[in-house]
Input
Amino acid sequence: MSSRLIVLIDEHWPTRASAPWVLIGEDGRLQSEGESEPRHWPPADDCAMVLTANQCAWHETRLPRGARREEARLLAYALEERLLRDPDSQHLVVVHREAEEGGVRVGVLVVARERLRSLGAQFAAIGRPLAAAHAELQSAPGGGDDTWRLTLTDHGIVLRPGAAPALAFDPPLGHALPLLHQALAAARARNAAPPEIVVHAAPGVDPPSPEAAIALAVALPTAKPYLWWEGAAGTANLLQGEFAPRHRRSGWTGRLRGPLRLAAASLAILLLASLGEVAWQRQRLHELEARMQRLFETTLPNTPAIAPAAQLQRRLDELRTRHGRLREDDLLALLAAYAKARGVATRDSVGALDYRDGRLRLALPSLAAPERDRLTARLAAIGYQVEAGDSATQLVLTTEPIR
Output
């Protein structure tokens, strides 16, 4: 894991250039933190930003099942009436999906497309291209159960009403009480009002007063302080689609450059080895052809080499006849070749046979077409030719070369 600089970006940046930041080391732990202008930010391998809650909106809607290919178009249509601006000007990011009967319920984060594009250009201009962008609306505590949680910061307020979409309010808490009261009233109408709202206050922010709990008619216990950067790692990256970081893609290419070079070198070595083997086999073939030519010239002097193998076989058969031995095309030799090729099925397989002039005609009444093909292939492998006879049950076996 590389080091990462995470910057909290509010709606005034970069007009107000100073921004809170944290540096996360390679071990995933906090290395340093502060608030300063970009020129004072510490060096890091990656840079990410967290958009304050008031720059995003969270909606849930229902889509037909199996509509992933047309999801962007369907989302824009489903949320059109709930968006403050034209859907084409908004960047939609799906943060969760839940299958339901006949469809899928999806949670969607919405951020202004032009704002996201402008921020990306600003970070690239200062030499800090963004690897990720997260929404504080999603990273604020809550969302794991039915507990309502309220996050208080000096730049905004986030309400996570259980598993429902988060809501953002402008500070201070006193100004947001009517909106919180409205959210509680809607929950009570559904008989889903919480017994308490757990409060997470950022360092330096005062917890709710007893009067606030009385006004809301609900307990407001405090929990651990809110650190704006802690939950960012587990949230959706807003840089998707057209906003996907190009330098990250080139980074992956850089990481793969070494393995790709090794693969190319291995392929080159394999190619050279294959070429060497082909050259060696060609050399062996040339040596065998030269040896055959020498044997032919020694055995058959003053004879032109037209088909050396067949001519040598014919000369060998002549010598075998002269010395009283079987030729390759004698009856017994042909029968032995048939028996070898037919194997265990040889017994009682021949209905009749006829041998004339080196050609053995066999009547094989029980030979099926597939077995005939296998028998022909086996005989061809040991140097014999098989031809069709006068009927479908006859084979003619000979040592003549196949034309």
The CA atoms of residues 58 and 109 lie 5 Å apart. The chain has a mean pLDDT of 83. The radius of gyration is 43 Å.
